[in-house]
């Protein structure tokens, strides 16, 4: 009998990728019956999932009764959390993760696959505390590992989609019509990227195919690492505009961000000191990539499929 896989964020980037990749896999689509968990089951994306014979249920993650209903009868759950941005950001997001995980255990689910991130504050020994979304997910990972339930973790790189969804981090227009990509980091700093919409589910598929093999493991997910200078060059080619990279000070970069400047400036400072995935990050990614099903989209290929307009 097929296992029921409940997917949080089913109409978003990560959850949508999990669902699409399971449906496109001849083996896994038979082994798992999909349940899409979303805040609005009347949205166009939710309706599209229903047409693909995916069960769609509504959930309010702030309401334990709603979570209980969404997970009733499920066997596996893909759990992702939405960042909080208030003064208690880490605590608020962690409490949501904890609530869902506790209910999964209480209802007797077999397995949690959690979307995690490294802890910037822990890895830097308290130097960088503003990258709250990373810290909350890292705390969630540690808590899930303590529970009497099998679990595995996918740790996603920077999303290639961010070049579209976060224009405030894109290149700035200069007076002569050229553009400058500025960061408080050297041009040689390498960043990992993944086409999350297409490829996140490929890593999750590996876990679903062999859940016992990956129990307790973290798959660090990226298609490749690209230096800031390379990224500027790729943006030039993709947009047809001249884009150059410039290293600026912490304060200058922070001031250029319209909100939560410390979060982004500390994030890049952390990357200089520790790398995105921590020590041995590129080795961690190589191991994960060897275990997935399917080809990953490189950053140049992503720009070919999704032209950038500056």
UniProtKB/TrEMBL annotation:
<dbReference type="InterPro" id="IPR036291">
    <property type="entry name" value="NAD(P)-bd_dom_sf"/>
</dbReference>
<dbReference type="Pfam" id="PF05368">
    <property type="entry name" value="NmrA"/>
</dbReference>
<dbReference type="InterPro" id="IPR051164">
    <property type="entry name" value="NmrA-like_oxidored"/>
</dbReference>
<dbReference type="InterPro" id="IPR008030">
    <property type="entry name" value="NmrA-like"/>
</dbReference>
<keyword id="KW-0521">NADP</keyword>
<dbReference type="GO" id="GO:0005634">
    <property type="term" value="C:nucleus"/>
</dbReference>
<protein>
    <recommendedName>
        <fullName>NmrA-like domain-containing protein</fullName>
    </recommendedName>
</protein>
<comment type="similarity">
    <text>Belongs to the NmrA-type oxidoreductase family.</text>
</comment>
<feature type="domain" description="NmrA-like">
    <location>
        <begin position="2"/>
        <end position="303"/>
    </location>
</feature>
């Amino acid at each position: 009998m097929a296992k029921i896989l409940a997917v949080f964020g089913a109409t978003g980037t990560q959850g949508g990728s999990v669902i699409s990749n399971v449906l496109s896999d001849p083996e896994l689509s038979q082994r798992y019956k999909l349940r899409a968990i979303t805040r609005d089951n009347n949205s166009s994306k939710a309706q599209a999932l229903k047409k693909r014979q995916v069960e769609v249920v509504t959930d309010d993650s702030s309401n334990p009764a709603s979570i209980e209903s969404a997970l009733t009868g499920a066997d596996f759950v893909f759990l992702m959390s939405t960042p909080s941005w208030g003064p208690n950001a880490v605590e608020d997001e962690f409490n949501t993760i904890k609530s869902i995980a506790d209910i999964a255990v209480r209802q007797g689910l077999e397995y949690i696959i959690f979307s995690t991130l490294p802890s910037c504050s822990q890895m830097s020994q308290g130097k960088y505390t503003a990258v709250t979304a990373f810290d909350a997910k890292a705390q969630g990972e540690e808590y899930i590992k303590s529970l009497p339930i099998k679990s595995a973790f996918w740790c996603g790189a920077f999303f290639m989609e961010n070049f579209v969804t976060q224009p405030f981090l894109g290149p700035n227009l200069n007076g002569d019509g050229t553009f400058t990509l500025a960061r408080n980091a050297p041009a040689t700093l390498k960043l990992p990227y993944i086409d999350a919409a297409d490829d996140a589910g490929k890593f999750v598929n590996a876990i679903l195919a062999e859940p016992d093999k990956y129990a307790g493991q973290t798959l660090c997910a990226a298609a490749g690492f690209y230096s800031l200078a390379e990224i500027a060059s790729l943006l030039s080619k993709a947009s047809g505009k001249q884009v150059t990279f410039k290293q600026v000070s912490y304060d200058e970069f922070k001031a250029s961000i319209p909100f939560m400047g410390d979060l982004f400036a500390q994030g890049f400072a952390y990357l200089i000191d520790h790398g995105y995935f921590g020590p041995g990050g590129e080795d961690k990614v190589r191991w994960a990539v060897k275990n997935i099903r399917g080809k990953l989209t490189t950053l140049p290929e992503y720009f070919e499929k999704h032209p950038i307009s500056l």
